[in-house]
Structure prediction request, 442 residues.
Amino acid sequence: MKFMFDHKKTIGEGAFGTVYKGKLWYSSSMILKGYGSREVAVKRVELRHVDKRKEEAMLKLNHTNIVRLFQCEKDNDFRYYVLELCDASLYQLFLKSDDPKKYNGRMPREIEVFHQLATGLAYIHSKKLIHRDIKPSTILIMRKPGKYDEIIMKWSDFGLTKSINKKRYHLWPGVRETSNWYAPEVLQKLIEGERAENEEFSGTGVKSDVFCLGLVFGYIFLKGEHLFGSRDKDIYHNIMGKHPVNMKSNPNLLPYYITLPFMNTWLLILDIDVELRKYYEDDLLTKMLEYDQKKRMNSAEVVEQLESIKNKLTEKEKEFFLLCAGDSSPDLVGKINDFIRLGVDVKAKDDDGMNALHHLCKSNSSPDLIDAIQLLIPLGIDVNAKDNSGRNALHYLCRSNSSPNLIDAIQLLIQLGMDVNAKDGRGQNASICCASQIQAQI
Prediction:
């Protein structure tokens, strides 16, 4: 395989390397199999700064949620790493709206982001590796081309990765990065300074990774704020002092009920109904941010609990569809909001390919129909989505709905970009159905 990169197209820069946008051409044998070329990221590192551990770690890893290393090359001055190209980092997701580097693309719902990250980290740990540099800037977002435009979270930057030996011990290297995203036991090693440089200690680095993953989950919950403070110098002291100031000062930003043990007491951070708490049973973040490493969850346990939560949310999605498919429901908007707070995927489809908007327009005659539609649109539901029969929501609205607000609902869908000329599997568009319904209301 051959690659090239453009020196003018810089993606990012670090202390020891620069990342450029490039292109990779496959070998003739790969071309015969249908492969041609692809855009890639090329990281260039001065030879004196090359960390062979990073190469060895990356070459060991083959997982959907880990940035793929395609090739390593070198010349007289540099080592080049040809990597999977991603769209942005998690850090860029929460930049200010006027920042040109802000990521404005789609994102999976939070439970899916958490599950992808936890699954990738558990895989890293299964290979007897520790990431050791977990923070928003080392978590990348990739849009996978294809019919469903899938968004995949990717672990990257294994510059500090260390192998665990057979006795499950590892050496502590000199730390070069910010301390904002370290577990308390790692910060304690920093306090000890040079004495910790080559000291062997119990192989609990996997648990340190889990604490940092908990920090990242909190960062997502808080829409870009760190759980333990807003300023670098405060975060360090607050982690060591067990003082999650942003969790206390911004309770409304967290969509889940979380309690944390501090100073031998239980601090109630959120006051959300018991029904919601069940879906994060046993307080997931509490166990991830546990200060006692022996009591802290491991990454496999995080995955297991997230899968349990996902399964319960799937059951809730079925209830959500039933609500939207009802003929009429008092306080429809309030009930939909309850499902949103639970983390239900409002964009999901049922076995017939129908989403919530299809169901609302097919069956619901509630006077709150328009408000319900307006509630779902900002959450990313596709107004032009078709079910297995090729029908969009407008087909159903015109065929089945007896709402007194029918005309207003049709006008709203058109304003939202509904394709009025779309045809179903029988070649019929919505206008054929509209005539009789509109006539009935005049």
Summary: The radius of gyration is 25 Å. The chain has three domains: 1-85, 87-305, 325-441. The domain at 87-305 is CATH 1.10.510.10 (Transferase(Phosphotransferase); domain 1).
